[in-house]
Amino acid sequence: MSTRAVLEVIALDAEDAVAAQAGGADRLELVTDMAADGLTPSVGTFAAIRAAVDLPLRVMLRPADGFAAGDVEGLVAVAGRLREAGAEEFVLGFLDAHGGVDLAAVERLAGVLDGCRWTFHRAIDRAADRDALRKALDGLPGLDTYLTAGSAGGVDEGLAVLLAEAGRRGEPGYEPRVMVGGGLRLDHLPGLRAAGLDAFHIGGAARPGGWDRPVSATAVARWRDVLDVG
Fold it and tell me: Superkingdom of this entry's organism (predicted)?
């Protein structure tokens, strides 16, 4: 049985995607507008990336900065167009004004995705009660991953939470895989891997030149090498 850790890389366009695949990424998260922490890309961008690489692609469903769902029916329409273009995996997550999960919005989109696999993203790190959020989402079709740093402040602040949640694997609400991302550094990996965490997400770390520069295949390969040694 393979113990290879999953490495997911943020891609903004086909150039990013090709470089990430060359560096050894296992999956891509497709977004636009990182100034707003990643919004839904266009169908055209998805199609160009799909044509350029053969990696699994998780497409962000997020209309604006922040974690409010906004126009849910508009998102439903966007999700439908992306699915028609061939998208099969997604990323989403919405909170209400009190920091609880916006269950109505999440359930509406999960229903439209009709079994497609999806990640609940770092909205969990802004939730008033992480455990309550997980239990509220328990059993939703397609939910197979939580992208989290353990804290809104990043992995440095959230490390204890990540390790504690890894230890609850298999409990109700804790079956989905934990994908660690948000201020993640290479020196975090040994401890996280030792705790059994096996999925990691990088964005800026794949772009030594900053967000105005493309993904570096060399940078991604460095992460791949360290994960494979671990």
Answer: Bacteria
